[in-house]
């Protein structure tokens, strides 16, 4: 029988403590194992220690995949996946709006590997099709995207890729496996920055990949040479974090929807971007491919609000670069993720100087509302 999501989070892959009958997975810190009895030699950089293997099973179960792999960071997972399927002379099509680290990897490093790339003009499926060339091997997407929470049609991208025999990859970090399972929609390789929702407490740097065993074999061949594995202690902590993943994310989904609706009606807020709102341009699409709309939203405060004073006045919500923890955090994309663009380049992407990205935590919404209301007034 198929297990429920909280049962998967809590139990799949757990290691038995046969000696002491403890309730949680024992932690095996060994970097050295006997050579006689394991077919592939056990070594942390081979991704096959007991704790690594156990957690990989949970990741695979969460993403409805045959295999999972845990990495030392989200970018270790992204770079390993990309380079495992691209070589000199190949071309990749990437979605226009991507996590900054991923576009930096492509723009700053791919030329020296002789890998050609194109970013789509927008998220229309015809824009993906237009960029496919004779030597294209991979299509790479990310949905919902940062910071405007745009939605890419996952199933349509997967179908297009199959017609052209291309490998598809998705960064599923913002949705988490609770809200979106791209393999069910035809995507080949699912990537997570486990630093975000999987970790969930802003204290773990990690990454993960879920895919078929055949694709994972190809990824493993490169991964063991690149060496981006995660230490077993952090693997063990990540297992603990994921036990509450579904509980946390369901709460964050509910909080984010309540906050999005409340912000929309606030007289010092102009626009709210959240795929769960009925007037979000991609709401209907989001409904077809997401089980929940996630804990990330962004909003534009009124031009009369001074954003520096607003951030200074926040008491509860932390101004913070990262996201997806149990605590609510906010940042100003114009000063952080998109600070290297000129103001006009930012405006062209829809990122105004008053746009605030909000990672909604698990606190009571009344407390969040009070904090935002008084900070907005302090910004006048
Ligand atoms: C944070 C993040 C990454 C990179 O992950 P790290 O764990 O910081 O290496 C990749 N994609 C998205 C969407 C992210 O938010």
TrEMBL record:
Keyword Glycosyltransferase attached: no
Alphabetized Pfam families for the sequence: Cys_Met_Meta_PP
InterPro entries recorded: Cys/Met-Metab_PyrdxlP-dep_enz (IPR000277), Cys_met_metab_PP (IPR054542), PyrdxlP-dep_Trfase (IPR015424), PyrdxlP-dep_Trfase_major (IPR015421), PyrdxlP-dep_Trfase_small (IPR015422)
Gene3D superfamilies: Aspartate Aminotransferase, domain 1 (3.90.1150.10), Type I PLP-dependent aspartate aminotransferase-like (Major domain) (3.40.640.10)
The UniProt record lists the keyword Nucleotide-binding: no
Superkingdom per UniProt: Bacteria
Cofactor(s) the protein requires to work: pyridoxal 5'-phosphate
Family classification: Belongs to the trans-sulfuration enzymes family.
Protein name: cysteine-S-conjugate beta-lyase
